[in-house]
Write a structure and sequence with these properties.
Layout lengths: L11 H8 L4 E6 L5 H15 L4 E6 L2 H9 L5 H4 L1 H5 L3 E3 L3 E4 L4 E7 L16 E4 L7 H10 L4 H5 L3 H4 L4 E6 L6 H9 L8 E3 L2 E8 L9 H11 L2 H9 L15 H4 E2 L1 E2 L6 E7 L6 E8 L5 E9 L2 E9 L6 E9 L13 H10 L11 E3 L15 H7 L4 E3 L4 H13 L1 E2 L7 E2 L2 E4 L3 H6 L21 H13 L13 H12 L4 H15 L5
Parallel strand pairs: 1-7, 1-9, 2-5, 2-6, 6-7, 10-21, 12-17, 16-21, 17-18
Antiparallel strand pairs: 3-4, 4-5, 8-9, 11-14, 12-13, 13-16, 14-15, 19-20
Helix pairs in contact: 10-11, 13-14, 15-17
């Protein structure tokens, strides 16, 4: 049988990904920069060249994999038709099987996190995350942890691929939930095209714009962007500008600084809650604790390589720092922008059930003004009254937006610990288990008004609820409570009483009781 040739061409910028020594590459920046074709070319190339390869293609929505990568004149169906017609390749909704090499491409998405939990800890030789900035940073790190290969398997690879695998490819535009992460870690961290060893991989950013794609009508491309998007978004998508005036309102957000292990704060720390009400839209509750500034030991739960591990750590946070240590986000499992329409008594009951410790009884719950007017929805009383009747009194917090956002940004920036030192310790932390907060804070966009973009955020569906609740919680004038000082005099009195010699009568009584227990004769 004659050799089958697949017609897969690469433009120079796309070819750089294959020629570079990098093993973790961010490719893209602009719309129509050839990202999707590179994804398909890479996966087909490695799976036809290497035996027993395990690959995964990830996008935020499963429908995007079908429409963007399977269908169309240059999709997987078209590119692999010569092989599928001969039965050498099978393409399904779950992935692509290459029978000659026994290699496989699995399709994954992030619409519902439950669908990929069973895949945690499973090795992938090649991980491709398409439109990566649409996916939260914490999930990017989980998927990164999937990419690994044993030395024995690597030694069996063809020489060209031996130093290239395992390999991670991200494609992205400069908009989305993890914009800040990729800007810090790839775009701004080093000169464009430079390769640097980071966390087990050789990392590189290769910028691609529409003019690198010879098949694009540049004028039509630019006109389409200007017609479809606001000026800032169009500029970012057209030029691949990672510093365009849009995207993350909290550009200071950094998971390495602001996300901490999950732990139960010491009992004596001051605690309170913040709450953003919702019915058709999500509601959210956060539990805050205020550090006393002392070292302490706590049991922790941390996510490592896609799996939670339990441990114990000595920890310290600045006095007065606020720790968001618990989260309840009331949304539909597969759509965080839609609420569950839970009745208010049930929400109040859920808050109490999630506050089981003795130190969590009677906590103040701060919220905005929406729940206090009579809206004719609570059998003639306000939402706040219903919550109070069910054991969760609500208190109006400081809802000032501009000063609140500034205070939240200042808390993330932190304060200088020592004169002359550049180190600033954050004064607001989010525990690792508060997953919605970690997703929504970096995805909150700036206000579209140029005059307000540095002062105010804009409404952004689910991100607004989380960020509003944390903003109100951060504005609380919450005290730092010291650990209770032992009553030394009382302790000394107890020791003296316990060590005082017994009287003759007490000694006789002790002997009688001892003999009675041993079955001996009475004294």
């Amino acid at each position: 049988m004659s050799e089958i040739v697949l017609n897969i061409e690469l433009w120079p910028k796309q070819a750089q990904v294959f020629e570079s020594p990098a093993t973790e590459c961010l490719f893209g920046g602009a719309s129509e920069g050839g990202k999707s074709h590179l994804v398909r070319a890479l996966l087909i190339t490695v799976c036809t060249a290497i035996d027993d390869l395990s690959c995964v293609l990830i996008r935020k929505k499963f429908s995007d994999i079908l429409s963007n990568h399977l269908l169309g004149d240059h999709g997987f169906y078209a590119l692999l038709r010569p092989l599928t017609n001969l039965g050498k390749v099978r393409i399904t909704r779950e992935g692509i099987k290459f029978f000659d090499t026994n290699s496989y491409v699995e399709f994954q998405h992030c619409q519902d996190e439950r669908q990929f939990t069973s895949a945690q800890g499973v090795e992938r030789d090649v991980v491709v995350i398409d439109e990566a900035t649409q996916i939260p940073e914490r999930l990017i790190k989980v998927f990164r942890g999937w990419c690994r290969m044993t030395p024995a398997k690597r030694e069996k690879l063809p020489e060209f691929w031996r130093k290239k695998l395992p390999f991670i490819l991200y494609t992205a535009n400069p908009i989305g939930a993890s914009l800040g992460y990729f800007r810090r870690q790839f775009v701004m961290a080093r000169k464009e095209g430079a390769v640097e060893y980071v966390g087990g991989f050789l990392r590189q950013f290769i910028k691609s714009v529409a003019r690198d794609n010879k098949s694009v009508d540049l004028k039509a491309h630019t006109d389409r962007l200007r017609e479809s998007f606001d000026a800032a978004t169009a500029k970012a998508l057209d030029e691949g500008d990672w510093n365009a005036p849009l995207g993350d309102f909290f550009d200071i957000w950094d998971e390495e600084r602001h996300v901490i292990p999950t732990f139960i704060p010491p009992d004596h720390w001051y605690r309170y809650r913040s709450f953003d009400w919702g019915s058709a839209e999500p509601f959210v509750v956060y539990w805050f604790a205020v550090s006393d500034g002392e070292m302490f030991t706590a049991k922790t739960w941390e996510l490592k390589d896609g799996l939670y591990t339990e441990g114990e750590k000595r920890m310290w946070y600045p006095r007065g720092a606020k720790i968001v240590y618990r989260e309840w986000y009331g949304c539909q499992p597969d759509d965080p922008s839609k609420g569950v329409k839970m009745r208010n008594p049930a929400i109040a009951k859920g808050i109490l059930e999630r506050s089981p410790a003795q130190c969590e009884q009677g906590l103040i719950t701060l919220t905005d003004s929406y729940v206090f007017p009579d809206r004719g929805e609570e059998d003639g009383q306000t939402i706040a009254k219903t919550f109070s009747d069910n054991g969760v009194p609500l208190t109006l917090g400081n809802t000032a937006r501009v000063t609140g956002w500034k205070a939240m940004r200042d808390a993330f920036d932190g304060k200088q610990m020592e004169a002359g030192s550049d180190y600033r310790a954050p004064m607001l932390y989010i525990q690792e288990g508060c997953t919605y907060a970690r997703d929504m804070i970096p995805s909150l966009p700036r206000h579209p008004n140029e005059a307000k973009k540095h002062e105010d955020a804009t409404e952004n569906g689910e991100a607004t609820h989380c960020c509003d609740a944390i903003r109100i919680g951060n504005m609380a004038l919450a005290p730092a409570k010291d650990k209770p000082t032992p009553n030394v005099a009382a302790i000394h009195a107890q020791i003296k009483e316990a060590t005082k010699p017994p009287t003759f009568e007490q000694a006789v009584d002790m002997i009688k009781k001892q003999k009675a227990r041993s079955g001996g004769k009475q004294f």
